[in-house]
């Protein structure tokens, strides 16, 4: 029998314009991860769960004696018996697609009062809730048998380092004897299988389906990234965490969050009681603020905390050795295959998370020595006499951390290829341009994913920042064609330099308008080096 179509494998990233997975897998090889088994759930049980979780009973229109056998918020993916969550959005109202959902056999609709007025909606039972996104998480969890209560789920939030930390955590947990799962920007992994992700944190029904699949696969511990979008949009409602962890906070997504305080408040929702334990990196002021608000185990690479680092040695091959000092006099030697102080912080968070669920720190640390994270500080090596790196830095703090680390690592020059994505935070563009100009010797400002924006205007904003930057040292060139920019950087590289291609990391496509053009920074860099090894 062919495998059932997996609704977790493909999701629309850019909404109505079509499916555009944003987190293509690192290798291109895709497996099928079937959604976990649903527990047929009566509408009465859903009403009860939603009421308990949100403090507000949904108004039921129509018969309440139906049963749901699944849930989705995408009308085009409804299967017979599903609860269709018709959600209000920035671009559409899900209720506008109710005809399609009901035509595909939706058993009931969850929507808001505005959605309930759409004529098509009223032909099946309707649960009307003022905050249907808040209701959808608990409902989905109920439909999938509350999977997060059957494994230890460790959630990592923060502006930077989530993906890296969950990979480190996955490896550490496995080394300490756990059977692991992972959900994040790049992919979902369980039991040696992987599917590329469309979101960093899946929508609630997809998340619960994945967690249920993990439970069925006897996964004991799962590490997942929890984005601020997910927290703000209640994608993780109804999900119980054994541990919630915070890496750091810096300017990003200010198109979605009106202020830094609002952005922090979204991240802080992971620490509102849904996690049994908390791990907080207090290297930045936001982390210290959070640690003052909630009971937390703290980690720091620079100051006092429950978990700290000593005897750090950064090796020329990009690996690092250090000792971790933990609670109760714990001292653990660590070998880390990733460079940079920021990755030491990520490793500390991972170790403290594993320890928080009762695993042995020495065994946990044993898992860190070989972890490579797709598109994060990824070395591209074709025997060339200079270092070549692909990295996912696409926000100011990441660009700063990346270029500062590389500057320390090489004796030669820093050659940077960088762009900014379209339809995303515009404020970060001049800042990223300025940082590149300040911390590099040569910079090529190029295109990232322009999406629906004019790429020349995005480059202009970055160039403006680069030209105004105080103390800028770099020669800055504009080359919109990313392939040409990578080739130009490789052609300019001399022995001892580093060429860094930043912003797209593991991504396998470039989003231009509604199209996705196949593009891999790793492949392009490798090809350019092979053709011109210096
Ligand atoms: C800002 C944001 O996250 N928006 C997400 C949100 O959009 P929205 O609520 O405005 O919904 P909408 O597109 O107006 O559609 C309304 C409703 O109609 C439904 N619909 C819509 C069209 C259709 O044909 N059929 C259909 O049923 C949709 O499923 C939705 O429920 O819900 C939609 C449905 O799931 C998502 O596609 C959309 O993701 C957008 C495209 C996106 O790019 N999100 C990114 C920024 C994101 O979520 N990123 C974070 C983290 C980033 C990071 O880590 O840096 C992530 O977790 O991935
Ligand atoms: N702890 C950290 N502090 C600052 N910068 C970091 C840290 N960890 C990683 N980075 C930088 O940020 C980039 C993104 O890292 P990573 O993918 O691990 O973070 P993320 O939080 O998952 O990001 P995203 O939200 O974009 O998925 C890396 O490629 C690196 O340049
Ligand atoms: N999860 C991030 C990815 C950004 C990746 C970068 N390459 C871009 O397109 O801006 C976002 O949706 O903002
Ligand atoms: Mg990520």
From TrEMBL:
The modification N6-carboxylysine is found at residue 267. Residues 1-34 are annotated as: Disordered. Transmembrane segments: none annotated. It catalyses: UDP-N-acetyl-alpha-D-muramoyl-L-alanyl-D-glutamate + meso-2,6-diaminopimelate + ATP = UDP-N-acetyl-alpha-D-muramoyl-L-alanyl-gamma-D-glutamyl-meso-2,6-diaminopimelate + ADP + phosphate + H(+). Its cofactor is Mg(2+). Pfam families: Mur_ligase, Mur_ligase_C, Mur_ligase_M. Catalyzes the addition of meso-diaminopimelic acid to the nucleotide precursor UDP-N-acetylmuramoyl-L-alanyl-D-glutamate (UMAG) in the biosynthesis of bacterial cell-wall peptidoglycan. This is UDP-N-acetylmuramoyl-L-alanyl-D-glutamate--2,6-diaminopimelate ligase.
